[in-house]
Amino acid sequence: MDSAVALHRPSPTSSFRLFQSRKFPNTHLPKLQNSTRFVESLEKNRFPINVSRPSSLLRIRLRHGSDDPANGPVKVSSNDAHIGAFSEEKELQAPSFAEFITSERVKVAAMLALALALCNADRVVMSVAIVPLSLSHGWSKSFSGIVQSSFLWGYLVSPVAGGTLVDYYGGKVVMAWGVALWSLATFLTPWAAETSLWALLAMRALLGVAEGVALPCMNNMVARWFPSTERARAVGIAMGGFQLGSAIGLTLSPILMSQSGIFGPFVIFGLSGFLWVLVWLSATSSTPDRNNQISKYELDYILNKRQKSFVVDNKPKATKVIPPFRRLLSKMPTWSLIIANAMHSWGFFVILSWMPIYFNFVYHVDLRHAAWFSAVPWSVMAIMGFLAGLWSDLLIRSGRSITLTRKVMQSIGFVGPGMALVGLTTAKSPLIASAWLTLAVGLKSFSHSGFLVNLQEIAPQYSGVLHGLSNTAGTFAAILGTVGAGFFVELVGSFQGFLLLTALLYFLAALFYNLFSTGERVNFDEPVS
């Protein structure tokens, strides 16, 4: 230590005694209950301290991270009696919007958004291609539903296994393998369609198997990179890409098909996925502390804020164990998430798979315009999802409980779409119908700040498996809804009746979630009696 500096600086012990002599309420000093430990910590770390008493007011401030006086003395103010040094919240202030949006963690969220955009674009291509394929092969509406649901056959088997792999190996590696496999399946779909119907169904099922790991990986990466006060925003960014993927797939597919044939979009989207994998592996890390580009301030902020909510293990687990499925399923909060995911998937896939056909069947809109009418709501959903996440984080920062915040978000995310679907059944023109559909899908995005973030909160150590369980239930519901819609329309002759049924299910799911969900961490390690 520089002697000149030492002459003007009291020792840590005397500084602390001087500090103790001031009459500050004990409630302001949560970190100073053990004075001996505090003094020893000062002496050990040699934190730069500068103390002056120009008036009866005193301010002490610690400058962390360096013992070099060249960093500058810590300024002392006599304008107030604020003790900023002894509160980590004051030392690591929340970043501004500009700092947040340019941070390394947002770059990770942006890469996740691109992956989920490709994920959904690869799904919805078939929603557009199914119309000319059905005409060329003479498929009925019920059989078209079976072809579209073949994706879900594969999606049914992978979420639990994929979630377990994510918990063990982390989101980065599993996501890379997932994107590579689903891009390969998309790229090979034209070959499969020309070969046989069974080859086409198998390739769509492989797409589902690979895409089943996408959302568990997203949740894992968000939990590792973002503190609890920013997670809803991060999920909003990532899921915004998911919804934009729907819009991109629905709008570009008809254009690409008109220029390069029915299978043009499959080839282009498949090649785009391979490019994403190369960037992902070279530009991101599985955890913040392994990132070479992150600043010390951002790393300290993430680790400090994250530890206040729960500890996330940054290392892959060495011992492979079977997840405690019985204990997970013995708690009602788990079932609230399962029911929420099931209803979310039912509504999502019914709208995603059938809306182009709905506009074509009910309003006699041609394929290209039907795709546009179906794409607009997904673009709105991307924006609404981020705004919902921002509002959710602000509610928590303002002191609202996590439980209340999640229930509010989920209520909007289910009751809102249910009411909008009722309005959709009354629409007399495609423009009014598109407005109702846009409202339904936009409000649906509030679910991302409800059950989707809630998965990380009640069981951070089992978030991948829990997401897999709820996704499996969601896939069952999606298969039932997608196939059931086709048979319902054939039997009843009306899309409107199926939309009313979906609205009723939305209302019931909202009630169940509000009764049994929680934002608190649930103890899944206690044995089931």
TrEMBL record:
<feature type="transmembrane region" description="Helical">
    <location>
        <begin position="173"/>
        <end position="192"/>
    </location>
</feature>
<keyword id="KW-0472">Membrane</keyword>
<protein>
    <submittedName>
        <fullName>Major facilitator</fullName>
    </submittedName>
</protein>
<dbReference type="InterPro" id="IPR044777">
    <property type="entry name" value="SLC17A9-like"/>
</dbReference>
<feature type="transmembrane region" description="Helical">
    <location>
        <begin position="145"/>
        <end position="166"/>
    </location>
</feature>
<feature type="transmembrane region" description="Helical">
    <location>
        <begin position="198"/>
        <end position="222"/>
    </location>
</feature>
<keyword id="KW-0934">Plastid</keyword>
<dbReference type="InterPro" id="IPR011701">
    <property type="entry name" value="MFS"/>
</dbReference>
<dbReference type="InterPro" id="IPR020846">
    <property type="entry name" value="MFS_dom"/>
</dbReference>
<dbReference type="Pfam" id="PF07690">
    <property type="entry name" value="MFS_1"/>
</dbReference>
<keyword id="KW-0812">Transmembrane</keyword>
<feature type="transmembrane region" description="Helical">
    <location>
        <begin position="335"/>
        <end position="355"/>
    </location>
</feature>
<feature type="domain" description="Major facilitator superfamily (MFS) profile">
    <location>
        <begin position="108"/>
        <end position="521"/>
    </location>
</feature>
<comment type="function">
    <text>Inorganic phosphate and probable anion transporter.</text>
</comment>
<keyword id="KW-0809">Transit peptide</keyword>
<keyword id="KW-1133">Transmembrane helix</keyword>
<keyword id="KW-0150">Chloroplast</keyword>
<dbReference type="GO" id="GO:0005315">
    <property type="term" value="F:phosphate transmembrane transporter activity"/>
</dbReference>
<feature type="transmembrane region" description="Helical">
    <location>
        <begin position="262"/>
        <end position="283"/>
    </location>
</feature>
<dbReference type="InterPro" id="IPR036259">
    <property type="entry name" value="MFS_trans_sf"/>
</dbReference>
<dbReference type="GO" id="GO:0031969">
    <property type="term" value="C:chloroplast membrane"/>
</dbReference>
<feature type="transmembrane region" description="Helical">
    <location>
        <begin position="108"/>
        <end position="133"/>
    </location>
</feature>
<feature type="transmembrane region" description="Helical">
    <location>
        <begin position="495"/>
        <end position="516"/>
    </location>
</feature>
<feature type="transmembrane region" description="Helical">
    <location>
        <begin position="234"/>
        <end position="256"/>
    </location>
</feature>
<feature type="transmembrane region" description="Helical">
    <location>
        <begin position="408"/>
        <end position="427"/>
    </location>
</feature>
<feature type="transmembrane region" description="Helical">
    <location>
        <begin position="375"/>
        <end position="396"/>
    </location>
</feature>
<comment type="similarity">
    <text>Belongs to the major facilitator superfamily. Sodium/anion cotransporter (TC 2.A.1.14) family.</text>
</comment>
<dbReference type="InterPro" id="IPR050382">
    <property type="entry name" value="MFS_Na/Anion_cotransporter"/>
</dbReference>
<feature type="transmembrane region" description="Helical">
    <location>
        <begin position="465"/>
        <end position="489"/>
    </location>
</feature>
